[in-house]
Write a structure and sequence with these properties.
The protein is mainly α. It contains four helices and no strands. The chain has a single domain, classed as Cytochrome c-like domain (Cytochrome Bc1 Complex, Chain D, domain 2, Orthogonal Bundle). The structure holds heme C.
Length: 127
């Protein structure tokens, strides 16, 4: 039998503009990376274990981004990429696409890292 795959004409569109992160894919990355083992985040249905040192993302992400003087998506990207006190860096464990997807999920809108990346945000003072 001859296998015809048909319709391959639209495959392989990989212009950079289409590489934007996607929240739905990011939720999968959240689960497979185990982010919910430390962070409470209601959108993911994640409840952090008692006494976890990781910020509850529903409550603290925005105020912490403000304190770091960064738009929330760049703050989240920096933390995921470089890590922080008590959080490992995911910059080499995950692909650029996975990190874009993850940040898109966390902030709730499509995100793509800027070409030069984002500088490391120093750990925040303890609450
Ligand atoms: C081992 C526990 C742990 C895991 C696993 C972990 N984190 Fe974190 N995360 C932390 C801690 C602790 C901080 C605070 C770091 C600091 O301020 O220096 C943090 C900070 C953050 C922040 C900034 C939040 C804020 O309010 O300051 C984001 C966003 C974040 N993590 C996302 C993620 C994502 C996405 C994953 C999964 C890839 C993940 N984390 C996995 C412990 C963890």
């Amino acid at each position: 039998m001859l296998l015809s795959l048909g319709n391959t004409g639209s495959a392989g569109r990989t212009q950079p503009a289409e590489r934007a992160g996607e929240p739905a894919r990011g939720e999968l990355v959240w689960v497979t990376s185990g982010c919910g083992a430390c962070h409470a985040f209601s959108k993911a249905g994640s409840k952090a274990p008692k006494g976890s040192a990781a910020p509850n993302l529903d409550r603290y992400l925005l105020p912490h981004a403000r304190r770091a003087k960064l738009p929330v998506e760049l703050f989240a990207f920096s933390r995921v990429y470089w890590g922080g006190r008590g959080m490992s860096a995911y910059g080499s464990a995950l692909s650029e696409q996975e990190i874009d997807d993850l940040v898109s999920f966390v902030v709730g809108k499509p995100f793509s890292a800027p070409p030069g990346g984002v500088a490391r945000v120093p750990p925040l003072p303890r609450r």
